[in-house]
Write a structure and sequence with these properties.
- This is 2-dehydro-3-deoxy-D-gluconate 5-dehydrogenase.
- One of its GO terms (biological process) is monocarboxylic acid metabolic process.
- It catalyses: 2-dehydro-3-deoxy-D-gluconate + NAD(+) = 3-deoxy-D-glycero-2,5-hexodiulosonate + NADH + H(+).
- It is an enzyme of class 1 (oxidoreductase).
- The chain is α/β, with parallel strands linked by helices.
- The chain has a single domain, classed as 3-Layer(aba) Sandwich (Rossmann fold), CATH 3.40.50.
- It is built from eight helices and seven strands, in the order βαβαβαβαβαβαααβ.
- α2 links the parallel β2 and β3.
- α1 runs parallel beside α2 and α1 packs across α8.
- The structure holds NADPH dihydro-nicotinamide-adenine-dinucleotide phosphate.
């Protein structure tokens, strides 16, 4: 039986997929039928095991995405190994915390480069193939801080607002050419990224009390949405940043 969520025959590239949300997305895309390449700094041993268990092809590409230097090669390797590229999930991201009054230029640059600049130029490299074939899906991982201000995370908030903006402009340019560009704004998800937050009992309780769903998100909550946005079911969705946040923004 075919469903509008079927990704059989699709070729996907996911950044930062050795842990957390990226790993869950890579595994879910494979579960829906896609072959998967992942790009990142660390060896994605667990992701490899999980993806290969689905029977789909898995390719690991070593790349430090803190600069744009590797983007052309990452896309070229994906295309060479998988035979093309139909789906790009820009997930790799970092956060730096400090009061804005003393926030360092190094932390500003590190976050903007990894979370925004590389995302744009990797998308540009992948889109050349997608536009040529008249088909493609780009899914950017944004944040609640694409909508809200946050505290002590100025470069992260600026970068994630930027991710939402880039998602809109690329959707404007490519929607008529068969390429969908959308973003997901995860709420509070249980990953390495939020470990310190969860370990702080007071902050953790305050966060939980404010989430209408009454629980933290699981990486699988984001992965299902990524499969949806990468699938034919989302063919008419362009330029949105979709909150997946247990109702946080509805509050
Ligand atoms: P993780 O820390 O588990 O995942 C981040 C991933 O990005 C890791 O695989 C990491 O690889 C990779 N990465 C970071 N820097 C680089 C780099 N220079 N080159 C290559 N890969 C890199 O956290 P999450 O799963 O939570 O984060 C995934 C995305 O979700 C991020 O964009 C984050 O901003 C976003 N997000 C997460 C939320 C949450 O509550 N968890 C909420 C909102 C957004 P490595 O192990 O090598 O560092």
């Amino acid at each position: 039986m075919t469903t509008p969520f079927d990704l059989t025959g699709r070729r996907a590239l996911v950044t930062g997929a050795n842990t957390g949300i990226g790993q869950a997305i890579a595994v879910a895309l494979a579960g829906a039928g896609a072959d998967v390449a992942v790009a990142g700094r660390s060896e994605p041993a667990e992701t490899r095991t999980l993806v290969e268990a689905t029977g789909r092809k898995f390719v690991s590409i070593k790349a430090d995405l803190s600069s744009t230097a590797p983007v052309e090669e990452v896309v070229a390797t994906t295309v060479a190994e998988l035979g093309g590229i139909d789906i790009l999930v820009n997930n790799a991201g970092i956060i730096r915390r400090a009061d804005s009054v003393e926030f360092s230029e190094a932390d500003w640059d590190a976050v903007m480069d990894t979370n925004l600049k590389t995302l744009f130029f990797l998308t540009q490299a992948a889109a050349k193939h997608m536009l040529a074939q008249g088909r493609g899906k780009v899914v950017n991982i944004a944040s609640l801080l694409s909508f809200q201000g946050g505290i002590r995370v100025p470069s992260y908030t600026a970068a994630k607002h930027g991710v939402s903006g880039i998602t809109k402009i690329l959707a404007n340019e490519w929607a008529a050419k068969g390429v969908n560009v959308n973003a997901i704004a995860p709420g509070y998800i249980e990953t390495n990224n939020t470990e310190a937050l969860r370990a702080d009992a007071d902050r953790s309780k305050a966060i939980l009390d404010r989430i209408p769903a009454g629980r933290w998100g699981d990486p699988k909550d984001i992965a299902g949405t990524a499969v949806f946005l990468a699938s034919p079911a989302a063919d008419y969705i362009h330029g949105v940043t979709l909150p997946v946040d247990g109702g946080w923004l509805a509050r």
